[in-house]
Amino acid sequence: MAILLPDLPYAKDALAPVISANTLEFHYGKHHKAYVDNINKLIAGGELADADLETIIEKTAGDASRAGIFNNAAQVWNHTFYWQSLSPKGGGRPAGPIAAKIDTAFGNYDKFTEELKNAGATQFGSGWAWLVLEGGQLKITKTANADTPIAHGLKPILTIDVWEHAYYLDYQNRRPDYLGAVVEKLLNWDFANRNLD
Ligand code: MN
To answer: CATH number for the domain including 41?
Structure first.
């Protein structure tokens, strides 16, 4: 049983102009695919050869001798979650159960967006900004490189990739502009609501 590269949930040009088809060609077609190819090579013939991604992540988290396996498995998982966190019809104020939970956790939607964008902008180097559930309460967190909330007992609700490959073709060094546009135009609140269950 190999780890598969899931289909994108939309066409490669569907997120333009916020994220271009050119970025998705490389980000999905090269970067995400490379993590899938790498993890399959790394687990082939070993005790994790038939494990699913979550199991591989759980069993290798914090194990320095298996950092390569963890990093590639977590990057496959994070990217699949990121594509689902975005929608051509997303962005703006949420509807559904997530809306009230955001007000409870952050005060209001504007404070939520400020905290999420700040987490992404202040992640030094490569990583991810996340909306997660911890003990039933929403919170913002960030992870470095391949690290993922599911390795820390947190339930991911939405994520934004802040590795340079996520935005450099479209925004060059302007990471805050990318974050602002994703929040305003692409965050998939239907996906967020489903993740609350
Ligand atoms: Mn990425």
So the answer is: 1.10.287.990
Quote the ligand 1 centre to 43 CA distance (angstroms). 21
Task: Compute the distance between CA of residue 168 and CA of residue 177 in angstroms, rounded to an integer.
Answer: 11
Q: Are strands 137-144 and 127-134 parallel, antiparallel or unpaired?
A: antiparallel
**Whether 54 and 135 share a structural domain:** no
pLDDT tens sequence across 108-165: 999 999 999 999 999 999 999 999 999 999 999 999 999 999 999 999 999 999 999 9
Q: Distance, CA 100 to ligand 1 centroid (Å)?
A: 30
pTM: 0.97
What is the tally of structural domains in the chain?
A: 2
Cα 151 off chain centre by: 14
